[in-house]
Amino acid sequence: MATTSLTALRENNAPTEKKSSPQQTLSDFFQKHKAQLEMALPTHLKPDRMMRLALTQFSQNAELAKCDIRTIFASVIVAAQLGLEIGITGQGYLVPYKGKCTFVPGWQGLVDLVARAGRAVVYTGVIYSDQKYTFTDGARRDLVIHNETSLDDPLDITHAYAIGWIKGADIPVVELWPISKIARHRDKVNKVGQKHYSFNNWEMYARKVPLLQVIKYVPKSVELSNAIALDAASEDGKNFTIDGDGLIAPISDLNTPDVDDGQHGAENDTQRVESAQEPAQTTTIATAAAPSHANSAQAEPEQDPAEREADKIEQQLRNATSEDTLDIAADLISSTPKHRHKALNALFRERRAALQEGAQSSKQATLIQMD
User: Fold this and answer.
1) pLDDT at 267
2) Residue ranges covered by each domain of the chain
């Protein structure tokens, strides 16, 4: 699939025309698709603010100008569907990699999604080298930090921790990770090398690692499960979006026409980008935008909501690309109708075996290369 970066769109302007900056090109693109963005947003977020936040982060990262403009817009749509803001709020970030942009939830975004579900509260923090603490594990887990810090350099962080309080539980879930363990975890799961976002956002990443461990034990909404799956995908350098059924889908799998290579002028290129965007990004809003009475003669009976949720979980199991994302989907099986449990659990076991086999094959291939 051909790609169109903001830099390419700007350079393909006719010589007699005044060249616009990459930021202006993105701003114009956002304005053309503002209605699409507005329909994806929850009531507490406004499209103008979302666009400003995205443009602010875009201006702070030159690598984003090299990204396919469609993946930038897709990432903003994903953030909108999760109800998370981009950039300065720490709820999520636009991360470029190999000419594509993906939305990565930050620790504050994950905390917000847990709180929204209403069944648990989580918190994450860091400990600096000038702080003393007491950690108790076992049946009475507890973490006490005895003094404040005067440090703020991420390189002075020695530990990161997360605590989760689940409604009705007697004790909290506590995870305390030394920074060396977090670095080893990053090196183990990181498939993109020095391009990994943690190298520029170390404290954010350090907080998020133990937080994700705590979240394994809390009840999850579909939005939270999707956010965790997106985070796991970013470790592999993959780009995902959320389709019309609320399911995670690879951006590369979306039905988007190729964009011209820029040989016919900026106006034609922009039009082609628009045509490529609309089928890909309106999937979620198509159902919401259609009147409920439209085509009622041909309309099929509405599916039971519980069955619809079970179908979503089934697709999450099938689409899982790691054991962590598979486990997240499996946690939701108990919320489905009982008659679906047997088949979904069987699918879970089948997918786990396949992922473990794939991981083993990859490990053997690596050992052969080392020899």
Assistant:
1) 38
2) 6-103+229-288, 120-218, 306-370
